[in-house]
Amino acid sequence: VRATLALLQEALAEESNSHFMLLSESCVPVRPFSELARSLRCDPRSRIRFEPWAEMRKRDILKAQRVQEIEGIRKEVACFQHQWMLLNRADAEAIVANDLTPAFAKVDCADESYFITVLAQLGRAPMQT
């Protein structure tokens, strides 16, 4: 999570960047970049695939309990996400400005809950993909 925050902070330094995408080595774009850029001009919202806390609890009760124990995070906003995501500039700035990494120190696989939960905590629910 800290490494991703550092990457976001560096990418935010370039003012022309409007969106920030985190992909894994197994994510291969299946459409041309020009199509993605056109889509983002039409709908610039962030996109993250996620599940609410209650849904995750049905599948992985231990992981859900760890997030529930985070001080200052309301259970109803806790979510779990896939690692890859697309953030618009405003959401990336909000995440970087509100570093909650100490609160997630005991959460297993914090990258699977951190970014979406921080956005939800701030009232910035992204588009679910």
TrEMBL record:
InterPro entries: BC10-like (IPR044174), Glyco_trans_14 (IPR003406). It is found in: Membrane. It comes from the Bacteria. GO terms for molecular function: glycosyltransferase activity. It is a single-pass type II membrane protein. Keywords: Glycoprotein, Glycosyltransferase, Membrane, Transferase. GO terms for cellular component: membrane. It holds the Pfam family Branch. This is Uncharacterized protein.
